[in-house]
Design a protein that fits this description.
Blueprint lengths: L1 E3 L18 E5 L5 E5 L2 E8 L1 E5 L4 E5 L2 E5 L4 E5 L6 E7 L1 H6 L3 H14 L4 E3 L2 H12 L12 H22 L10 H16 L6 H8 L3 H12 L3 H19 L4 H7 L5 H12 L3 H6 L1
Parallel strand pairs: 1-3
Antiparallel strand pairs: 2-9, 3-8, 4-7, 4-9, 5-6, 5-8, 7-10
Helix pairs in contact: 2-4, 5-6, 5-7, 6-7, 8-10, 9-10
């Protein structure tokens, strides 16, 4: 049995040697059984059949099926036919939380899961092929991009998630496109964060912009993602700091100023806390 768990021996952990966008593409043609857990799995069955099982149910998946699994789900893929082939795009939960359109897909998925124990959907051939074409864009060629790699990947992920959200909506009877207020607040928070994280590191700025209390914003973000507002701010700051250290010749003080830190020392302590090494050592690696 093969275990695809990012905390153990499954997908590679994010880091310097792995793609900074935390998205990998895999195919499982030969393993006898595969356990899928602790992540967002978007699976496209290209051929054959297999059983996908959890503690409560089993579902026969077949060609042209779309399966979406979330971090809270644990499923086993087994009893595959000899011609079985599928493509799986795995999105790390922390990276998923940074995607502006992740909640739109998650909202539609929650409605879909309420109707089906295992979120598997059989698609028409044209819809499946178009989705597969998007999946093909997740390749090592993304590493060729330097300055805009993060933005390209983010837009690509959002495009894929919105495609899936639309498919789920069209296949869920009596579904509503309305997003509840807490989801809307969270989406607006993420948009504000993307545009302001370099200048504003404090939760009060975002709460004031959204016309809500800091306590309420903290509760919404924590409930939606399992992470704090500070975590989301720090993740973006650290990702941009790494990009500037890797792809530019800006000095450490200049980077600290660019990211809104009061001085180089404060930035240095922040970077060490996030990565385990100083900015200078990170650049020299």
């Amino acid at each position: 049995m093969k275990l695809f768990d990012p905390d153990k021996n499954g997908f590679p952990a994010s880091g310097e040697e792995n793609p900074p966008y935390h998205v990998v593409k895999c195919s499982f043609e030969k393993e006898e059984s595969v356990v899928l857990k602790k992540g967002f799995f978007i699976i496209l069955v290209a051929n054959g059949t297999a059983l996908l099982s959890n503690n409560n149910d089993s579902h026969l998946i077949r060609k042209n099926d779309l399966i979406i699994l979330t971090p809270s789900m644990t499923n086993t893929l087994h009893e595959k036919s000899s011609d079985f082939a599928m493509t799986c795009i795995y999105i790390y939960p922390d990276y998923f939380d940074t995607l502006s359109d992740g909640q739109a897909m998650y909202h539609q998925l929650a409605r879909f899961i309420n109707k089906y124990n295992i979120p598997a959907l059989h698609l028409e051939t044209d819809t499946f092929c178009y989705l597969q074409q998007t999946a093909e864009l997740f390749s090592d060629k993304l590493k060729c991009f330097r300055i805009y790699q993060n933005s390209i990947t983010s837009h690509l992920c959002n495009f894929l998630l919105l495609q899936i959200a639309d498919i789920l909506y069209r296949n869920t009877q009596n579904a509503s496109v309305c997003i509840k207020r807490t989801d809307e607040i969270f989406r607006n928070f993420k948009k504000l964060l993307i545009n302001n994280y370099k200048r504003h590191h404090d939760i009060l700025f975002y709460a004031n912009k959204l016309n809500i209390s800091t306590t309420y914003l903290s509760r919404i973000v924590k409930r939606t993602t399992g992470r704090t507002v500070r975590f989301h701010v720090s993740e973006l700051l650290c990702a941009e700091a790494r990009r500037l250290l890797e792809s530019t010749d800006m000095g450490i003080k200049e980077i600290a100023d660019n990211l809104g830190f009061s001085d180089q020392s404060v930035f240095g302590k922040f970077f060490v806390k996030m990565t385990g090494v100083s900015p200078l050592k990170y650049r020299k690696r």
